[in-house]
Amino acid sequence: MTNDTPDWLRLQKALAVEAEQGFIDLMGRQYRFSEFLTLSFGKFPQVLPRDERWRWQEIAAQFAKYPQMELQDRQHLIAQTRKYLHQLQSQSGSERVKEGRSEGGMREYSPSNSPSKITKGFSGVQNPTTPIVSEVSRRLAPRLEQKLRDLPEIGALKADKLVRLGLYTVRDLLFYYPRDHIDYARQAKIRELKAGETVTIVARVKRCNCYVSPRNKKLMIFEMWVRDNTGELKISRFFAGARFTSRGWQESLKRRYPAGSMVAACGLVKQNKYNKLTLDDPELEVLANPGDSIDSLTIGRVVPIYALTEGIVANMVRQAVISALPAATHLQEPLPSGLRQKYGLMELKDAIANIHFPPDSDTLQRAKRRLVFDEFFYLQIGLLQRQQQAKQIQTNAVLAPRGQLIEAFYEILPFQLTNAQQRVLNDILNDLQQPTPMNRLVQGDVGSGKTVVAVIAILAALQSGYQAALMAPTEVLAEQHYRKLVSWFNLLHLPVELLTGSTKIAKRRQIHSQLATGELPLLVGTHALIQDHVNFQQLGLVVIDEQHRFGVEQRARLQQKGEQPHVLTMTATPIPRTLALTIHGDLDVSQIDELPPGRQAIQTTVLSGQQRTHAYDLMRREIVQGRQIYIVLPLVEESEKLDLRSAVEEHQKLQDSIFPEFQVGLLHGRMTSAEKDEAIGKFRDNQTQILVSTTVVEVGVDVPNATVMLIENAERFGLSQLHQLRGRVGRGAAQSYCLLMSSSRSPDAQQRLKVLEQSQDGFFISEMDMRFRGPGQVLGTKQSGVPDFTLASLVEDEEILILARQAAEKIIEMDATLGRWRLMKEELKYRYERLMGGAIMT
Ligand code: ADP
Ligand code: MG
User: Is the dihedral of CA 252, 257, 261, 264 positive or negative?
Assistant: First the structure.
């Protein structure tokens, strides 16, 4: 983000997230919340009026003190800052909508021809797409940009509270989608409950109780006994975090559910270990206190649940939404009606109304479908536009697909390319002949043979008189590539050099000068390649291995070493299709979906602690036959009292007491490069038979003689990562084994690990990984870049995503500038920026 456009959204988002999480000074990927804010306010954007500067400095200073502040002061500071940013934002004009963006904004009074206005109360027959409508709507629907504080039903007091949720205007509120609904239509009686069903019960509170979990001092457990006229039920809720364990907090929680009050609870029925049914962590809502008549707002309908924050109760947001809802009629439809019909999409204004107060679950589903479609659609339009723009760029590096070097390489290659390799290579060679730079991602499982394909692309550049660069994320991997390339390039009489952080200064100088003169055609290396002194004479192709381990900026910097060079990125971590479309929607993607012949499946077994001797027996047998073993541990040093054995200790133990007859090596992330090289070198030469390592072996290490991969505490890793680690064995002809040690009793963990026993297919595994852990976790790297969708889910909504992509392609084909669709264009600008601003505090 540059300094001249302030990143309001990022700041607002950070503030909102911190508030939602209860002002705990969240840890971001790089900074704590307070640090992030101090830094952000510490440098003012150029558009900031001069006389605001002191204010920024003051805010920066206050956030520096945030960690020492009491909860109340934190709350106050955040609310003030949010309010201030909002003001600035509207002054600076970077705010999305001014009056009149929508026609409705001009009108004070909305026409009464819409059927949604006529419904009375909540008891009458509901028109299927007709939302609940409050009294005001009949008088006048508020304007979309009207401030919430100016609505008589809300007023300044409540509006100030809503600010904590980032809600200022009527429009904000309309687009503040509920995170769930309680379907009171599916009400069940306590006696009829069955484990596994999601139900809503309405019952009276008998008593409740709070206590701190004896096993976890930071977990507060809240129990409540309720009854209806058929029976009694225990409900439990869990509150994780030190602040919930205070007496005061517990008492205030109990006061919310006084005996005799009527509550609704919605959640999954579970059977506990005493065979009793319970509701674990349900949505809970007090319908009426003793003596009240029951609140008609919540009974007999599908009721929205909103994300709340301190001091804001459910009904307050609901009431506010109800007063804002009539303004939905002012929302204009950005999507052409043909498109809406083709994909069966509800109109925007109806979707908005129904996402809040749907008459039934079916209508809710249709509303959701429309809004999910929108989230995907605008993102895809944005990505496709970016792709289009990239295709406008010209390059001089038009590379010939055939030539002497490639011919010579085929001569020395000891095997035939697989069909998949050939197909992907054709895609690449075709790109290289175009006058626009290639931007292609090759996905292929570990061992699918991506390197050879990249080498042929490199040779295409070289034989046309251009230079090439190959960048890898670790020294180990860079060196691996270098060794392989040297062996091939020697036969082709071509020079190649390696540049990493540990390259000696004299060598480094030599490389710099040979690059500049063009004497050196290919440079392999790590991040060292993007340093200032590295200048190519004529860089035609950039290859980035394990691209997801680099940030966007690092990739761009390598690219800038040439004039519009072609870019080939590679990854051995296949990702599910939905995720690929979302984060790589602007790239061309090819898959190597076939392994070279003769590979044996790696026999994978999940073992518990008691089966450890079985594992050690197998290892011993393999070593006696001359094979080698990896043992991978999750951490280097004991941290946070997790009962993980540290690599250092484990190494000691294995060497001294378990395998004294063999040599055991150690590799971990805190070692210097030289130490790492030595450890890997010894393992490669079979001077050590066992290599105890942290996940640094994940990429790069290639020792075909290793046949057993044992992973400790396997449940702590993601499936894709385990699959990567497993890929370190099975690289030779011999049968290989992967042993996943896990003492976790959690059925979820066991089920997850079983996926690896059953499958060797990286795509399938990553799909499962995403289902278990969510999209952000699957990438689990520096630059995850998964946008923050509000409603859409990459796990659940694949079908809608595919349709949205189709629709977006069609639109871009018709008019990439969206000149024909003014509203769509405006919507895109707003949405796309917001989605892309999603990754905060990185
Ligand atoms: P990755 O896709 O994991 O980078 P590599 O390119 O390192 O895979 O290839 C893994 C191994 O398979 C290497 O030893 C490579 O020489 C070999 N290999 C690649 N393609 C073929 C093929 N078509 N037939 C046989 N072996 C191959
Ligand atoms: Mg590779």
Answer: positive
Q: What is the Cα 239 distance to its own chain's centre? A: 24
579 lines ligand 1 (CB under 6 A): no
Half-sphere exposure of 836 toward its Cβ, with a 13 Å CA cutoff?
18
| pLDDT value of position 691 | 95
CB 726 within 8 A of CB 718: no
List residues bridging with 207 in a β-sheet: 225
Radius of gyration for the chain, computed over Cα atoms and rounded to the nearest angstrom: 30
Pick from 206, 200, 173: which is nearest to 184 by CA? 200
Residue 667 contacts residue 692 (beta carbons within 8 Å): yes
User: What is each CA distance from 386 to 383, 684, 800, 816, in whole angstroms?
Assistant: 5, 45, 22, 10
Residue nearest to atom 20 of ligand 1 (CA): 449
| Distance, CA of 496 to CA of 487 (rounded, Å) | 10
Q: Which residues of 400-412 are buried (b: 16+ CB within 10 A; e: fewer)?
A: ebeeebbebbeee
Q: Under DSSP, is residue 496 helix (H, G, I), strand (E, B) or coil? A: strand
Please report the pLDDT score of residue 290 as a whole number: 61
Cα distances (angstroms) measured from residue 582 to each of 334, 381, 725, 804: 22, 11, 26, 11
Q: What distance in angstroms lies between residue 518's CA and the mean position of ligand 2's atoms?
A: 27
Task: Please give the domain boundaries of the chain with CATH numbers for all domains.
Answer: 1-115 (no CATH), 182-305 (2.40.50.140), 337-393+791-836 (no CATH), 404-433+449-571 (3.40.50.300), 603-759 (3.40.50.300)
Count CB-CB contacts under 10 A for residue 314.
Answer: 17
SS3 content of the chain, % helix, strand, coil (to 5): 45, 15, 40
The Cα–Cα gap between 585 and 310 comes to 38
Tokens in use for 340? 């809406």
Does residue 447 have its Cβ closer than 6 Å to ligand 1? yes
* Structural tokens at position 472: 């890898």
* E strands in 696-808: 706-711, 737-741
Structure tokens at 572: 């051995």
For residues 627-645, b (16+ Cβ closer than 10 Å) or e, as one string?
Answer: bbbbbbbbbbeeeeeeebe
Residue showing tokens 């024909």: 820
CA distances from residue 42 to 33, 36, 54, 239 in whole angstroms, order as listed: 14, 10, 10, 35
Alpha carbon of residue 550 to chain centroid: 16
Residue 199's region, left for phi above 0, alpha for psi from -120 to 50, else beta, is beta
Q: Is the CB of 572 under 6 A from ligand 1?
A: yes
pLDDT for the residue numbered 532: 82
Do the Cβ atoms of 89 and 45 come closer than 8 Å? no
Range of weakest confidence among 25-34, 722-731, 790-799: 25-34
CA of 452 to the centre of ligand 2 (A): 9
Whether ligand 1 lies within 6 angstroms of the CB of 452 is answered as yes
Q: 307: part of which helix (H) or strand (E)?
A: none
Question: Which tokens sit at 642?
Answer: 């997790």
Q: How far is the CA of 735 from the centre of ligand 2 (A)?
A: 21
Alpha-carbon gap, residue 395 to 436, rounded angstroms: 5
Q: What is the pTM of this model?
A: 0.67
126: Cβ contacts below 8 Å, ≥ 6 apart: 119, 359, 360
What is the number of the ligand closest to the CA of 702?
1
Number of residues assigned to the chain: 842
Binned at pLDDT 50, 70 and 90, residue 803 comes out as very high
The interaxial angle of helices 33-42 and 53-64, nearest 10 deg, is 160
Tens of pLDDT along 515-545?
999 999 999 999 999 988 899 999 999 999 9
What count of other Cβ atoms lies within 10 Å of the Cβ of residue 500? 20
